[in-house]
């Protein structure tokens, strides 16, 4: 195993590479030409415009002010400067709470590290077991770990006590964080201005009725069963029904027209640059063959045809009763009525007339709105079985591909390739890359596979899909990355051996291997954690793509807006990865505390980087109000319990078995703590209390007595394809911007202020920040 | 092991003893003197009166009509005659659905038995394994079981196929039954006449308010947050709040006065029989010492003192704000409003203002209404841990008592007893009885212990307490009776060996022992099942107690009413015992089908007996509308999955391991089936849909527009001690009787008709059924 020197060297290399990334980032972000790659959020908010043409052509692309280069790291304090309330208003509660996860890691592990280094490291160091063993496989690093304590030594009392201290501290921090996040969410919901989803309920599984259309049936049902006061007496005024239409053909047409629009824009762009010759194209697929025609005329006429087809199709499905799906967004006059409808059972058959809070309009996953109950139930069963096989048997198809991908395999299956394969360079490429590449490709597409599985499961909102995918990914990481690294062999072999071992043996088997893997995981944290975060901030792929698009496609300001790829925090993949670092920290806290500083560096670095990204870059697809926190909390508890069980397994092999029973209350109490927290806070993330609803209703009635709610809700939940020609609109409804309340004004003031501070280096260049309609 | 002849003999003996019980029952029930023991339900309903005095003194006690003795078994068809709808009206849905569990057993096992005897018995019988083994431990019975099939034989395909058929059939029957019961419940709720609990919500954890009393706080909170239409504008008319009072001292006084009343009645009774001398008593405890006084005067004066104390105490706690508990029964004007309040969250803090459907007034468990959330959470944790130790370690204290109870132990602890112990008779008694008696006493008080644990857990209704106790008892039976009989050693030893075995070994260990235990369980079914049921119908203890009370205490008709002990179906203890028979049937269906006919006889016999008891005897304490069915269903599914796992374990030891994997989908699909059923039906047992509520509200508004709801609800949820002097009233509110709707009339007509049929033997005597106010 690696010595302290080896780890130090490795740390130095990784730190250097991380700093190289950071330096590159600091240089690139100062160039005005990259401004839209590193500060897209401000452009989307409309606060920052392109530099003016009037300045020198050089300064428009390159930053020549040398003072800004000296302070190349000042984005870090800038990122930390924005206070949390402003951050929530600027980037949304989802993002603000997400970066709190990193902060939580710091809060949790800094005291644990101090304690572990103060108590456990001296205890381990003076254990003097490994010094007596004349074995090269041990090094100074292991002397700091629990391996250095002789079996049966009373020194283990220190470890047992510390696991209790760590558990108590972790639970305390988790409790406080849950409380804080729950309060943040409640405040957020209370402060929120009017949004369509506050007044809307998603009704699914509307039963068929022989006499009525779905539309009529829904209207009658809610007129009868929901406050006649609200619906019947003033139905045309207060309530509004929007039945979701099944319009896949139309969606295809719209997508086609969008593609045509892109081509047309491209050629118009070309023509504008060279007004002397009109651009031509060929009529075949992709413009590569067929007769040559005038490109702009060709695409304009194609656009016309598609527009007509679209109108016909739209008319057709509007009138076709078969394309109406048995689901509806039902809106109510008051938040109280909405809360009541969303939380109660409507019909004695619990599989029809299912009501739930409507997701935000841009959060709706339209494809899953009309799945019948039985089908949904079968889909979930199949996905669960598939997930099990994916986690435990994913190596089987990959091993199969790998076996095909070796030389003999290919020669056997495709004998005619023999002469090619026997060429020396081809041979070495195949031998070197192919086997690894199959696994790499699988790991890259894994999040997509998991997301597809979640979609098959039939959840109705993007946020829910993200949460479910994160859950799946978490288990994949636990089994295949964590256990897979500790125990050799594939997950399936592990499963088999676990089934053939007594349940008390499993923590032992895993626990014994843990101290030996400390250096491996330290390297992992540095390569995957540190360097990965540094790469995140550099944004190489969006940088390249933006410049390519900007060179070839962009013509108007709106096109450039679209060419930006701000990206977003991908909860489904990044949250489970953070959980993995929590798991490592908790498992190694009492076993090999040397790992903890690396974890702390990771959390601190990631906190700063993601805070910067959230402020300047990411543009979230939806806002769920930190709805995911119960999942984060639950997974943290799972990590904690895993660490406790492994500690029990480890200690029971140290001739300390009797005392190990003292650790038994830990998982039980932790589980109880989980149940307690769930009862205490979870409903804040899934239900909307009537009291709050009543307060908001009363307030609204007092401030806006003449509000036309029906008009307000009319367009909110229209399927994207029905939105007419404005398919380029980035968001379905952007309430924050079009809202007349006072708060919004404060928002833009606040964000402007922090914008100027956060990107002080960019504003320092005299070129930037003077809005002009056209450039580059 | 026992041969077929042995089992036959045992069956004959048990059948004979069961018939002896039945004969005794048939004889005793024909005597008019026992009429109140065997038909108390009809007396409680007020349909049947005591025989008149005018007839001969002999015929009042003994039935002299010999024809009725000839038809001594005709109570059986009589019990089966009452159709189910009448049964529901007569005895309540709880009882009607409860006896359906036995019917479910018949529906499930009759086809399974036919199939098993048609297919598996021939396959096993011709297996010819045991014939080659010259071992006396095998008998003909084992030749019918799976033990007779040679390892690795393709005959096991028959067993695998049959387990699938059995599983499918069981699931089908369970699904149909769940559907039927859910529909029965919905029909029952829909047909129900107005009851206070339909309009009432139990609110718990009312937060303290510095400015207001709980009473005011509750009123204000609901006025603000619940339909202002209902509460605020017409609050004094439509809504009614009843805060539950903490009145334990008063309850004690009332109990004392009740005891005094009993004594007074006893002496008045004595005096009436011998008017010549006034009875005397002594002033000391229990009337055994102290000065001699006139008994009637003494108790009358004591009663007076207590009544005055009671009045003072009542006044005191009425005015003492400290005795008001933070809980309330909040009533609403409409069922819709009640359904909304019960199903929604009121406050952003989910641990205060907790709302749930109020239980029936007589179902309320008053002591648990005011437990704070944190305390409740800790109580549940402690009870769970205690239950675990109770199930797995209950043998430890009993073994300790047993070790004390042997001769040497007693001599050591209490040396002065030595001469007594060494007497021969005392010695044999101690050696023979004491060790067994400790276990027996424990098993008798076990249901009480479990009920106490459920009470500590803090549930608020008797029905819920029953359901939770049943759950605990079920697990106790599974671990200690089922596994304990199959594997030797205490549960704790089993647990230890299971923890040290691989999880795949457990079904193997248990599975292998199963075929060998078939004869043991057959004997168990006959002794515990057949004879137990026969003893149930004889009601020896209530019979003796009634005659004792009747002789010494009863004076007026009302006293005699109270002397009757109709008993009730004790869900908490009897349902888990039925589950045990289901478990045996499912486990042995494919292993040793010979056991199945015994199970069928049990279910058929129990069905008839309990139908008779429900019609003629039992008086339920509450009516929950078959609220327990999801529990019954879940436990049946657990039994099914246990049987599947054990079958897998058994087959994997038969050199058939590869094919055993084919059984793996069984538990997964069964679990999915459980989830599906829960989603499909469970809410019918816990929620009240708004649609139904609206229908009932509308109907009520149309039929009774001038109903004074406030007056109606005024007295419904008053704590028993506040009900003034009528503490003898057997039920708090008996809606069925005092209800003016048409249905009730039909009820009494119907029940009268079936009364006369069901107890035709009794009515055949010319003495019975001519109501008179006083006799015996």
From TrEMBL, chains A, B:
The keyword Iron does not apply. Residues 728-776 are annotated as: Disordered. Pfam families: PHM7_cyt (PF14703), RSN1_7TM (PF02714), RSN1_TM (PF13967). Residues 199-368 form the CSC1/OSCA1-like cytosolic domain. Signal peptide: none annotated. Residues 8-177 form the CSC1/OSCA1-like N-terminal transmembrane domain. Keywords: Calcium, Ion channel, Ion transport, Membrane, Transmembrane, Transmembrane helix, Transport. It is found in: Membrane. Residues 747-776 have a biased composition (Polar residues). GO terms for cellular component: plasma membrane. Residues 379-651 form the CSC1/OSCA1-like 7TM region domain. It is a multi-pass membrane protein. Its main location: membrane. Belongs to the CSC1 (TC 1.A.17) family. This is CSC1-like protein At4g02900.
């Amino acid at each position: 195993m690696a010595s302290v020197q080896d780890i130090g060297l490795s740390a130095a290399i990784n730190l250097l590479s991380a700093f190289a990334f950071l330096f590159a980032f600091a240089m690139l972000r100062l160039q005005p030409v990259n401004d839209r790659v590193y500060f897209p959020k401000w452009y989307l908010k409309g606060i920052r415009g392109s530099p003016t043409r009037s300045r020198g052509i050089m300064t428009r692309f390159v930053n020549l002010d040398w003072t800004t280069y000296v302070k190349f790291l000042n984005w870090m304090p800038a990122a930390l400067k924005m206070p949390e309330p402003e951050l929530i208003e600027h980037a949304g509660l989802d993002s603000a709470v997400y970066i709190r996860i990193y902060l939580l890691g710091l809060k949790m592990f800094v005291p644990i590290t101090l304690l572990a280094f103060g108590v456990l490291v001296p205890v381990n160091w003076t254990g003097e077991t490994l010094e007596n063993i004349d074995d090269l496989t041990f090094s100074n690093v292991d002397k700091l770990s629990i391996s250095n304590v002789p079996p049966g030594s009373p020194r283990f009392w220190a470890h047992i006590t510390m696991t209790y201290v760590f558990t108590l501290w972790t639970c305390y921090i988790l409790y406080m964080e849950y409380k804080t996040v729950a309060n943040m969410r409640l405040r957020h919901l209370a402060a929120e201005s009017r949004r369509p989803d506050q007044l809307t309920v998603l009704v699914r599984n509307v039963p068929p009725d022989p006499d009525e259309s779905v539309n009529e049936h829904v209207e009658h049902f809610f007129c009868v069963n929901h406050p006649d006061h609200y619906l019947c007496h003033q139905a045309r005024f207060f309530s509004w029904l929007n039945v979701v239409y099944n319009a896949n053909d139309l969606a295809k047409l719209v997508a086609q027209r969008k593609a045509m629009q892109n081509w047309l824009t491209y050629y118009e762009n070309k023509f504008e640059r060279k007004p002397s010759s009109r651009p031509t194209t060929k009529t075949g697929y992709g413009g590569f063959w067929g007769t040559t025609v005038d490109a702009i005329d060709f695409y304009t006429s194609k656009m016309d045809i598609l527009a007509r087809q679209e109108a016909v199709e739209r008319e057709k499905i509007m009138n076709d009763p078969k394309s109406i799906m048995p689901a509806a967004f039902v809106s109510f006059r008051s938040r109280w009525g909405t809360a009541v409808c969303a939380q109660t059972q409507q019909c004695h058959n619990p599989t029809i007339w299912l009501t739930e809070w409507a997701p935000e309009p841009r959060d709706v996953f339209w494809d899953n709105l009309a799945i019948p109950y039985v089908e949904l139930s079968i889909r979930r069963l199949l996905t669960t079985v598939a997930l099990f096989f994916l986690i435990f048997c994913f190596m089987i198809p990959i091993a199969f591909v790998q076996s095909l991908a070796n030389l003999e395999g290919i020669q056997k299956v495709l004998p005619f390739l023999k002469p090619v394969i026997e060429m020396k360079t081809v041979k070495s490429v195949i031998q070197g890359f192919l086997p690894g590449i199959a696994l790499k490709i699988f790991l890259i597409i894994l999040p997509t596979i998991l997301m597809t599985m979640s979609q098959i499961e039939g959840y109705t909102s993007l946020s829910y899909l993200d949460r479910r995918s994160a859950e799946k990914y978490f288990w994949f990481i636990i089994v295949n990355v964590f256990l897979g690294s500790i125990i050799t062999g594939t997950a399936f072999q592990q499963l088999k051996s676990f089934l053939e071992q007594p349940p008390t043996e499993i923590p032992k088997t895993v626990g014994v291997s843990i101290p030996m893997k400390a250096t491996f995981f330290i390297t992992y944290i540095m390569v995957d954690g540190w360097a990965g975060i540094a790469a995140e901030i550099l944004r190489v792929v969006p940088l390249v793509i933006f410049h390519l698009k900007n060179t070839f496609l962009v013509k108007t300001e709106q096109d450039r807006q679209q060419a930006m790829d701000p990206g977003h925090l991908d909860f489904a993949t990044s949250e489970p990865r953070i959980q993995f670092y929590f798991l490592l920290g908790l498992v190694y806290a009492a076993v090999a505390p040397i790992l903890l500083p690396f974890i702390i560096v990771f959390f601190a670095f990631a906190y700063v980087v993601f805070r910067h990204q959230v402020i300047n870059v990411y543009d979230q697809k939806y806002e769920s109000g930190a709805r995911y926190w119960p999942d984060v909390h639950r997974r943290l508890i799972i990590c904690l319990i895993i660490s406790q069980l492994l500690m029990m397994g480890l200690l029971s092999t140290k001739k300390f078995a009797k005392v190990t029973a003292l650790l038994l209350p830990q998982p039980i109490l932790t589980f109880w703590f989980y149940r307690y927290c769930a009862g205490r806070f979870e409903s804040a993330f899934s239900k909307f209390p009537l009291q709050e609803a009543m307060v908001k209703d009363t307030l609204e009635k007092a401030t806006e007595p003449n509000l036309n709610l029906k008009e307000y809700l009319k367009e909110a939940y229209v399927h994207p394809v029905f939105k007419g020609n404005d398919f380029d609109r980035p968001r379905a409804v952007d309430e924050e911007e079009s809202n007349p309340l006072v708060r919004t004004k404060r928002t833009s003031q606040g964000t402007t202020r922090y914008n100027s501070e956060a990107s002080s280096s960019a504003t320092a260049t005299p070129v930037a920040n003077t809005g002009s309609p056209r450039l580059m």
